[in-house]
Design brief:
By secondary structure, the chain is of the alpha/beta class. 47% of the residues lie in helices and 13% in strands.
Length: 601
Amino acid sequence: MSDTTAKHAVKSGALNVSLQGIAGSPGITIGKAYLVEQEDVDVVEKRFVDPESVPGEVRRFKEAVKKAQEQLQGVIEEVPEELRDHAYILHAHMMILKDRMIYDGTSGYIENENVNAEWALKMAVDDVKSIFKKMPDPYFRDRASDIGHVSKIILENLLGTGHSNISDIDKRVIIVAHDLSPAETTQIQLEKVKAFLTDLGGQTSHTGIIARSLEIPAVLGLGNATQLIKTDDLIIVDGSAGVVILDPDEETLTRYQERKDLFAEYQAMITRSSRLPAETTDGFHLRITANIGVLEEVVSVIDHGGDGIGLYRTEFLYLNRSTPPSEQELFDNYRDVAEIMAPRMVTIRTLDIGGDKFASGLQLAEEMNPALGLRAIRFSLQSPEIFETQLRAILRAANLGNVRIMFPMISEVDEIVQARHMLKQAGESLEKAGIPFRADIEVGAMIEVPSAVIMADILAKEVDFFSIGTNDLIQYSLAIDRVNKHVAHLYQPLHPAVLRMVHRVVEAAREAGIRVHMCGEMAGDPVNLPVLLGMELDAVSMNPISIPVIKRMVRILSLKESKLFLEEALKQSTAADVVKLVQDTYGSSFPRAAFFPPNLT
């Protein structure tokens, strides 16, 4: 339902008004809303100050930052036990408070333009957020929201406005807010909060990550929920489908209560069996691994029965700093991941980041289209010092665990050849220095662009494994920006063109005798599993919370039947045809509410 239609329906008192957002965390709940009142601090007035008042404005800003640090430290000390694993997010926010681009940038705007501290802070924050928003990886693009959350605390201190305290909620409610910062989310008391909805946010925002770890339903990115929903309104939240229903009638309540019970029953069942292997009825074993972005997520991988880490995004340590991390910093982090996961495999992806100043200290020209510019392996090859530091750290960590390396966004053979040459040089430098390392580390290429698909048979001769990154592959192949709401619906993992490309890569890998994995979001959606299993992938990697569902699904499928199903799927003309084929073939085999989103049942 469009925003305008929804507003009209609510005003007219209609029942079953449906809002569509982003599925932040699965599950269904029914309850009364609690609207979190949040003062609008985004509208900041620009004021010019007298030169003699400039030192006072700078001092006022620094005092607001100091107070924000004290406030965050207080939140960290009060984080409940069930959220301890996510305290790293708040520590990262403490680092943002000290970020020179924000701290010095704000002071610089005050001193150079004679403006008030509030406006100077806004300008400095906008500068930093614009850098994050250009990043190709949605996980790191969403870190712009973290900058916003931290600056909001400082701004509230400057303006003297209050802030909401979610820990004061004293009844079982569904939280409705414009946005929720990690500091606010970590104050959630599980016995009081049934779910939450936000106008902003997405799956890769920290709000979504925390919701999934708490295993409470969440719908994000609703746009105008806070304008349509009032405290004590009865609502239904379907976090699996990203749907919110306002003022449901009795029939709708009954239907969703049945779905809620079925979902809870199914979740309990798959959790009990999450540590069992993902083996088909005819004996084929599919390794189910996890995608993570920070060290602390390793706990979630183990808790959800992951067979290893199929994608460790290494960009986090490079963010919010003017100089890149040292080799020792990187090594300490990679070693911890490897040792905790041992003997399970850990696949470390080298930097998939642009050459912006926050990551490298380099001053590079602005790019019209960063997603197609100097990023990932291209940036690494043009930044040999940064690349060698990371390669050395990975080789050292590989000596202490089951580690392999993966190069992102490979588009031609020369990139692999150059990257392997630099990896060899990094090993030689470690050997010369007498530092322990592992030389025979496995090397993989991420297949994310059409040229890599076409050249897969040649690329396969240069690596030990392929990892298909479907997020970018689908985006580049279908010319779809999946975060653009006008065309996001065209982002179709089951598009016949996508299936044929994936199939081609798998066949090229098989002919070369190397393993082939998938680490994009396509791998974590059960609807795609029969097709992917039919391709006989060696492993799939996904968000940790998706692992139990996928493992359970694998155990009720047959490899032989999946191969036959794949043959039929490859004959289809549209994504809708493939989805219908999945429904017709497997709809009765899986619990409907758990396998298919409600709009497909």
